[in-house]
Amino acid sequence: MDEPKREHIKQVAAKWIPFASTLAVVLLFLFTTGGKLFSPNNLRVLTNQIFTVLLISLAALFVYAHGNMDISIGAMIGCGMLFGTLATNAGNSIVAGFLVILIFCTFIGFINGILQKFFPHLGFLPTLCMMFILRAIVTYAGNIQTFKISNVYAVYDNTVLKVIVLLVLALLSFYLFNFTKAGKFQKAIGGNASAAEQLGITDPAILHSI
Questions:
Q1: Helices and strands, counts by H and E, the chain
Q2: Does residue 200 surpass a pLDDT of 80?
Q3: Tell me, what DSSP letter sits at residue 135?
Q4: 92 in helix, strand or coil?
């Protein structure tokens, strides 16, 4: 086997082995539990457990791809949900809450991106500080009272809707990451920032587009 083919096989293996390993683990538990792994109750529990984690992972993918680190994402989501809950209850509209969460998280992400771009020597410290700040806000608010949206919106808390949202966002993320200029540029920057810059791929445009 010549060298190009060997390298191609390595690249394909590196891309698909994680998925194959995950599938192997799922099949192992499926057979050892006699099929109970995919019982309706288990699927509902698994969906509820992985829903938020997968949403955060899809967003973090675009951050880590170009070599940066943001450890404030979890705190950002938590604080955004707090403000979103307040907006939903105040405006009696779940759309208002969604928009508040979107605007808040985009703003915090923009600040983190700017700090990491212009102060690269600080590494992940800006996002660490941001995490502590946002956690403090959520903790302080939670110690004062309990925040929750009206039970009217409980209809949206169902497994089918969560699966649909995850599939749509996963497909959208896959497309943006693999078939758009921004996604390809991010991978190039993460692979070798100096080589990417020589090819005309610059950090500011990509970071601001995120």
A1: 9, 0
A2: no
A3: H
A4: coil
> What's 204's DSSP letter?
H
The model's pTM:
0.71
User: CA 159, CA 49: separation in Å to the nearest integer?
Assistant: 11
Query: Any residues with CB less than 8 A from the CB of 183 and at least 6 apart, and which?
Result: 62, 65, 176, 177
> Which of 108, 138, 140 shows the shortest CA–CA distance to 126?
108
Residue with tokens 């005309």: 200
Sign of torsion, CA 197 65 78 156?
A: positive
* Crossing angle for the helix pair 73-91 and 94-118, to the nearest 10 degrees: 150
Angle at 186 between CA 77 and CA 166, to 5 degrees: 40
Distance CA 91, CA 173 (A): 31
Q: For the chain, give the longest Cα–Cα distance.
A: 67
- Closest-CA residue to 74 (of 89, 49, 52): 52
Core vs surface per residue 15-38: b (16+ CB within 10 A) or e: eeeeeeeeeeeeeeeeeeeeeebe
> Is residue 24 very low, low, confident or very high in pLDDT (cuts 50, 70, 90)?
very high
C-alpha 209/C-alpha 142 separation (Å) is: 34
Q: Which amino acid is at 107?
A: F
DSSP code for 39: S
Per-residue pLDDT, 176:
86
CA–centroid distance for 112 within its chain: 15
Are the C-beta atoms of residues 203 and 193 closer than 8 Å to each other?
yes
Q: How large is the average pLDDT for residues 70-87?
A: 90
